[in-house]
């Protein structure tokens, strides 16, 4: 099925996913969510993809949920964002949450290149991305309290872990829109760039990962670090990294990494995701959604 709300290109092992509704500032719809999840599915399945870069076309990254439905936009019984049976007490799954959970589960590094306003789900969808870079023209807003709803897209879990509980509470309780310098100061983004320099900076970082690292190592490292955020004792990490080190230590990439270092040359890694990921994998149990 052709993409209509996004576009995607693969070059030099970097998959660029572009939110592509510039006439609506890339406002979020159910169709966009499904296309994004499908793109991440393909990224995980394709060994040629080493890094995913997400950006927006035009002057916005994502202006949030498409409010074209008016006052019923967030009514799950009638809106274009509805899923499930329409009974908010039973089967409804938040579309933004379905997307952020999919990004969270990704085995490839994910970089956000936030080129303009990122508001509502446009901001929360970036939280499970591993690294966020922003244009100097970017603006951010966790505006849910100003729309009479609550933070979505699993952001009550992600946002405090990214910027700390005090900043997360301030941004979500005031619902104000703030500029890129504040996002940098509070740790939401890694760096700010002139508009024309944003994607080149994202690609430079993506290339550093794609060229110099093992795909299997990155996949396992990404999941280990994200999932350890919810653990209460370092023993949880010890139980995972002990067998992971033992199993990866016998891999072709581990041999190549050491030999390349000793020979003072760039490594040429060959192991692929998901084919060559050793046990223990997956090393977690996904909780079930109970509607």
Write the layout of secondary structure elements.
Layout: E1 6-11, E2 14-19, H1 30-45, E3 51-56, H2 95-104, E4 109-114, E5 118-119, H3 121-124, E6 131-135, E7 139-141, H4 155-163, H5 165-174, E8 177-179, H6 180-185, E9 191-193, H7 198-212, H8 215-228, H9 235-248, H10 252-262
Parallel strand pairs: 2-3, 3-4, 4-6, 5-7, 6-9
Antiparallel strand pairs: 1-2, 7-8
Helix pairs in contact: 1-2, 4-5
In short:
The chain has 291 residues and is α/β, with parallel strands linked by helices.
Distance between the termini: 29 Å
Compressed to H and E, one letter per element, the order equals: EEHEHEEHEEHHEHEHHHH
Major sheet, described briefly? 6 strands, mixed
Low-pLDDT residue intervals, each spanning 5 or more residues: 82-87
Give the full name of the CATH homologous superfamily of the largest domain: 2-enoyl-CoA Hydratase, Chain A, domain 1
CATH architecture of the largest domain: Alpha-Beta Complex
Report Rg.
Answer: 20 Å
Total number of β-strand segments? 9
CATH hierarchy class name of the largest domain: Alpha Beta
Mean pLDDT: 93
> Count of DSSP helices?
10
Q: Which structural category do the helix and sheet elements fall into?
A: alpha/beta
CATH topology descriptor of the largest domain: 2-enoyl-CoA Hydratase, Chain A, domain 1
| Strand order in the largest sheet | 1-2-3-4-6-9
Please give the share of residues in helix: 25-40%
Kindly give the count of domains.
2
Into which percentage range does the β-strand content fall?
A: 5-15%
Morphology call: globular
């Amino acid at each position: 099925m052709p993409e209509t709300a996004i576009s995607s290109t693969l070059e030099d092992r970097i998959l660029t996913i572009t939110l592509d509704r510039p006439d609506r500032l890339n406002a979020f719809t159910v169709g966009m969510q499904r296309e994004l999840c499908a793109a991440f599915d393909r990224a995980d399945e394709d060994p040629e993809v080493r890094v995913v870069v997400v950006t927006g076309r035009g002057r916005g990254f994502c202006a949030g949920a498409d409010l074209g439905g008016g006052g019923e936009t967030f009514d799950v019984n009638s809106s274009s964002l509805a899923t499930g049976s329409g009974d908010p007490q039973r089967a409804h799954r938040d579309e933004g949450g379905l997307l952020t959970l999919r990004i969270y589960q990704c085995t490839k590094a994910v970089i956000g290149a936030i080129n303009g306003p990122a508001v509502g789900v446009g901001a929360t969808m970036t939280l499970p991305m591993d690294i966020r870079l922003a244009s100097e023209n970017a603006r951010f807003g966790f505006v849910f309290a100003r729309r009479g709803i609550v933070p979505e897209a699993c952001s009550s879990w992600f946002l405090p872990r990214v910027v700390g509980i005090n900043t997360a509470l301030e941004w979500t309780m005031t619902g104000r829109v703030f500029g890129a310098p504040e996002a940098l100061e509070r740790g939401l983004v890694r760096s700010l760039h002139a508009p024309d320099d944003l994607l080149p900076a994202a690609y430079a970082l993506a290339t550093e990962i794609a060229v110099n690292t093992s795909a299997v190592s990155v996949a396992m490292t990404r999941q280990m670090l994200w999932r350890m955020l919810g653990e209460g004792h370092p023993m949880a990490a010890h139980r995972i990294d002990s067998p992971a080190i033992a199993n990866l230590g016998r891999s072709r990439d581990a041999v190549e990494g050491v030999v390349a270092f000793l020979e003072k040359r760039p490594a040429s890694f060959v192991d692929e995701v998901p084919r060559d990921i050793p046990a223990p994998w997956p090393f977690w149990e996904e909780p079930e959604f109970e509607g």
